[in-house]
Q: What sequence folds into this?
């Protein structure tokens, strides 16, 4: 168990490196996009389009979560499971293309359908990427997942840098079209990422993605997938409920400022997502006792790493004014408040993964998300009219903290474990951490 954990931790470190790299790339892209948009309104519209995509993709991508549970927990035949998933994808893609045709035809009459068309155009490729990524995760091919996650972000950064340079050189002619050009860039980079990951996932799986009808596999697939999809949708509403409340109650300028605060604070989640990714397959595969120990140890390291990161980011928060220009100074206060909530919610994901992939309890996350969303919306309605976007940040952080509290209590109830196991380092943890210090000392002594 200790040896497995050491390998998992080393894998976590590598994954964190990739995640931080992606965060840095995404951050630089966001800075460039924010700086070259002529108005806060364009920045707000771009944020609304990309965020709205997540509602559709998050819901439909939820069925991919069954791959890990089906392969590693239920031990289903790989080709049969992937055949059912492939068949579902083709059905979803056909419906989305039909909706895209209708949306494009309505663009001249209603301008909002112009942006809806972009969302529908990118949606099939985002879902395809998600399904392929989920398969690689279930196969414990984390290195490939890390590499492929860099593709879209890196390509978008290159495109954003080109647009920034062109706009700086030809501001008068390019500025009015930058929103549309940026959306086209966003579409093309997502298409490229999907086109690259599919053959890799197919090769690592060692089987063809042949669509098939299989009632024996379909029954648990859809029973599990439907619940996870609704859970994912509620999760996304929890993530972005305050975002849309700000848009309704504070306008597009408020959305632009709030977007900076949200995206900056969510960099913290790269840590928790890295650990979750590294133990993704093992939480489902291990027997109950070993899975509990893995979950608790991962939670402890995640929770305190998130707290440390939040403290550092809070101290660096005045840099928002420098990096994004003085126009975005109003993002600093909500960013500082959101750090509290993102720290709490970042640790929640590991517990949710244990509930769904080890215990098979997919209903609790639905109830937890529903309670969190209700709290978020209620506080938004009360606070935003009086406090502006700061009220949205307060609502979000409160909702995230509630989600962590409910998850911890549910974990205790279904494992009969003391809360000390989640929040206090054990003797084994300390021994593990000390292993690296003597090694560094011996290396330094040997180099003298």
A:
């Amino acid at each position: 168990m200790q040896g497995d954990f050491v390998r998992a931790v080393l894998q976590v470190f590598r994954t964190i490196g990739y995640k931080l790299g992606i965060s840095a790339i995404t951050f630089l892209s966001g800075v460039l996009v924010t700086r070259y948009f002529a108005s806060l309104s364009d920045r707000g519209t771009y944020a609304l389009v990309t965020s709205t995509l997540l509602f559709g993709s998050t819901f439909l991508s939820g069925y991919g979560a069954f791959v890990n549970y089906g392969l590693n927990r239920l031990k289903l035949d790989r080709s049969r499971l992937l055949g059912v998933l492939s068949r579902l994808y083709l059905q979803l893609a056909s419906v989305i293309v039909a909706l895209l045709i209708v949306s494009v035809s309505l663009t001249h009459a209603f301008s909002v359908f112009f942006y809806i068309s972009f969302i529908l155009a990118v949606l099939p490729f985002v879902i395809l990427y998600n399904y392929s990524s989920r398969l690689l995760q279930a196969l414990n091919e984390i290195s490939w997942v890390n590499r492929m996650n860099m593709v879209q972000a890196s390509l978008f950064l290159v495109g954003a840098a080109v647009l920034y340079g062109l706009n700086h050189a030809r501001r008068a002619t390019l500025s009015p079209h930058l929103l549309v050009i940026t959306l086209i860039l966003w579409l093309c980079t997502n298409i490229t990422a999907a086109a690259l990951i599919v053959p890799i996932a197919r090769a690592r799986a060692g089987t063809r993605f042949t669509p098939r009808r299989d009632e024996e596999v379909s029954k648990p697939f859809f029973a599990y997938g439907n619940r996870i999809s609704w859970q994912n949708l509620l999760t996304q509403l929890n993530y972005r409920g305050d975002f849309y409340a700000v848009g309704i109650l504070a306008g597009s300028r408020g959305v632009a400022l709030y977007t900076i605060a949200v995206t900056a604070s969510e960099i913290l989640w790269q840590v928790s997502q890295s650990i979750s990714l590294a133990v993704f397959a093992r939480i489902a595969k291990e027997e109950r006792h070993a899975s509990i120990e893995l979950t608790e140890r991962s939670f402890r390291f995640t929770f305190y790493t998130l707290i440390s990161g939040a403290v550092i980011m809070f101290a660096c928060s005045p840099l928002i004014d420098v990096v994004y220009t003085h126009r975005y100074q109003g993002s600093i206060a909500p960013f500082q408040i959101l750090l509290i909530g993102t720290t709490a919610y970042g640790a929640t994901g590991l517990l949710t993964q244990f509930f769904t992939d080890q215990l098979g309890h997919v209903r609790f996350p639905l109830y937890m998300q529903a309670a969190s969303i209700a709290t978020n919306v209620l506080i938004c309605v009360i606070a935003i009219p009086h406090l502006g976007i700061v009220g949205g940040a307060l609502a979000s952080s409160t909702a995230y903290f509630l989600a962590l509290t409910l998850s911890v209590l549910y974990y205790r109830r279904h494992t009969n474990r003391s809360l000390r196991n989640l929040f206090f380092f054990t003797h084994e943890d300390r021994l593990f951490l000390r292993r690296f210090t003597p090694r560094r000392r011996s290396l330094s002594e040997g180099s003298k």
The mean pLDDT is 82. The chain has two domains: 1-213, 261-432. The radius of gyration is 22 Å.
